[in-house]
Amino acid sequence: MQVLVHNKAQKKFKKIADSELKERLKDAFKLLSDPFSLDTIKIKGEEHTYRTRIGKYRILFIIEDKTVYIVDFDTRGKVYK
Predict the structure, then answer these.
(1) CATH code, domain carrying 65
(2) 43 burial class (0-12, 13-18, 19+ CB within 10 angstroms)?
(3) CB-based contacts of 8, cutoff 8 Å, min separation 6
(4) Plot region of 45 (φ>0 → left; ψ -120 to 50 → alpha; else → beta)
(5) 24-74: per-residue pLDDT in tens?
């Protein structure tokens, strides 16, 4: 599957100062080409929206056809707002 990152998520990613976290997220973005190989759960009330966990962070993404769109990522308390 092709992985695309939404502008909002790209801006957040560029602002991260912690290089270790940045690398972990970058690796997770690559792994999303096969999204169900990770700890992936469907978001209730949403048709094509899923989330996966990377440490204390959650990555929200949408699967349409053969494309994964990374919509947002943040800590658990902030990402679902």
Answers:
(1) 3.30.2310.20
(2) middle
(3) 71, 72
(4) left
(5) 999 999 999 998 888 899 999 999 999 999 888 999 999 999 999 999 999
